[in-house]
Amino acid sequence: MSLLDSLNPEQLAAVTLPRESALILAGAGSGKTKVLTARIAWLIQTGQVGPNGVLAVTFTNKASKEMLHRISTMLPINTRSMWVGTFHGLCNRMLRAHWKEAGLPQAFQILDMQDQLSAIKRMYKVLGIDAEKFPPKQLSYFVGSAKDQGLRPKDVEAHDEYHRMMVRLYEAYEAQCQREGVVDFAELLLRSFELLGANPTLREHYQARFKYILVDEFQDTNSLQYNWLKRLAGPQGCIFAVGDDDQSIYAFRGARVANMVQFENDFNVQNRIKLEQNYRSVGNVLKAANVLIAHNKARLGKELWTEAGEGEAIRVYEATSDQDEAAFIIDRIKKLVLEEGYSRSDIAILYRSNAQSRVVEQALFNAGMPYRVYGGLRFFERAEIKHALAYLRLMDNADDDNSFSRVVNFPARGIGARSVEQLQDISTAQATSLYRAIHRMEGRAQAGLKKFADLIERMRFETRGLSLPDLVDKVINESGLIAHFQADKDGEDRVENLKELVNAAASFSIAEGYYRDAAATMVDEEKLITPLADFLSHASLEAGDNAAAAGQDAIQLMTAHSAKGLEFKCVFVTGLEEGLFPHENSIGNSVEGGDGTSVEAVEEERRLMYVAITRAREQLFLSHAQQRMLHGQIRYHLRSRFLDELPEEVLKWLTPKRAHIASQGWDALDSKVWGQNKTLNVGYSNKTSKRPYDIGTGVSHAKFGSGVVVSYEGEGDDQRIQINFGRQGMKWLMLSLAKLERS
DNA sequence: TACGTCCTCCTTTTT
DNA sequence: GGAGGACGTA
After folding, report:
1. Which nucleotide, over all strands, has the C1' atom closest to the CA of A608?
2. What mean pLDDT is reported for chain A?
3. Which uninterrupted H or E stretch holds A482?
4. In this structure, CATH architecture of domain A379-421+454-543
5. Which of chain A's termini has less CB crowding within 10 Å, N or C?
6. Is the domain A660-743 a CATH 2.60.120.330 member?
């Protein structure tokens, strides 16, 4: 059986397990995806289950597509009806098939984070709640984390007045979503979970159908996802969970590593297989990763090994500034591409936060190197695309107040805030949508709104019978979006993007088979929805970046988070500075470990660093900068602790490694910095303030040790000084009290 | 009342 | 560096 030939004994054991639940602890680069895919193929090929009896959950849409593709090359089956996807994608599918039972409209819409926030803000206005006191962002976080645990408002414990208010808001938010027929990301999961709970027939149907459930990246499941799986599997269920506790990087969104242990207990797991051989990286990279992650206390324990050679040493570069760091990267990439024969797509540049990409992008652009940024502003999140989608949504469902508010006056058509406010009042009073409220309006404000409603109606009428791409094309023109951006001298890119949306619709139609029979548009097994509604939900769940620039040989830019699950021959990990990576919010904080224990938040950052390092197959470059422009302000960071935690023997410092802060020669830096810009010192403007240490100076403090002066604020006796103490974190100290010494 | 411009505020990671 | 709010003008 050729399918199994390329597997090692451990992998083979995992792939060919009998029908029992199993936990596979798979290290980075140990062939996780391969094992998952091979198991599915093996199960089907040996006739143990049909393609429809398998449910596989992956972490990204990209991963599921890849998996389906691989299966289809191995087996002569139609993979289109297979249930392989993300939690959100699968729950969406289930809810679309059972919208009635789930209490949703047939064409419900999915709110992304941005939409969610604006929905919340509108609700605040209606309820007259002080947004200062109860920040909408916090509500959105509150709602999200409650739902991640499977909690509805009635189930949330409210300890104090603040919590009680939050619960009240949560309740109101839910009522509003219900009224508008929209769901947010978390709601998708929760609805599906509740649907399975409330409807035994349906539950038993799915339990009988999915004889085998496979889960990738199991360490990143939250409680709700875990319970969803449990409910779906049922008493006879068989779950094959693959994960790596060292790669758990989504605690901020409720991921619970403890699920792994709970899974073993709940399902009486007899098979725990460890995959520790790494097929991805050279020895030096692996050694660095092993030593780094050993600094974490909370681990199940695993040691990766490889048969590959040591490979190149890991190169470390200390840049003087973020610009210098980018220049170093460009320089190295040129060598890799021109002298060492790598293609550009073999090379990835990773960073901790999206904002860091800009400097590198600029440098790549100036050097004429094609690049591609993942994440950040995704295609479907761009303002112009969201506007176009909002028009499409309104045509599909006029009661969608979110979309209505977005485009009612975009492009500007003389409908001001006042008119919308009046409309809002009417819709609240009559408990109807904004769109319907138009007809009940009176006075001059109505004229403009009426015209807008007519526009939507006209577009709906005129696009009847058109194919999806033609429909989209018609709408971006009729709505005036194209004209608006064409008139804008900076709008060229936006026009391009809008045209790209037509292409995206076209490729979606082809992928989903809507072209095969344009007349019979309601098709496909469980999919009883129009192509438009289908496309809209697709837009909410997919980043949509596969359409753009596919096939281009380009340098890959992404956050360490988005790099999970991917691999590249050459990897640059940038911005290795205290406060950035590890991120300042994590330094000195503890988080609940999921089983009642307290874990340092930095451990998650370290896992993230571990993920970043282990993306590299052959060459790894690490860099940090002495000063960096952040939030429009120059900041000085110490070298990341992670660099010091790596084993010295696998590193090669391209710049001299400095012992520590005291000997860093800050004098030279001072003159450089102050020579360029005399106004660096934010918050300092008054003559009663003094500045005994220049920004960027190294100082030492009896308790916190050595650090770097970052900024000042206040004046006189209240004047405070901000110092980056590296490991001890960023501190604000009263200048008059703190005993500081120049170091 | 509508719209453009200036200013201020905030600033992790994502399906 | 960007988004949203405040303000001034048509």
Report:
1. B13
2. 81
3. helix A481-487
4. Orthogonal Bundle (1.10)
5. N
6. no
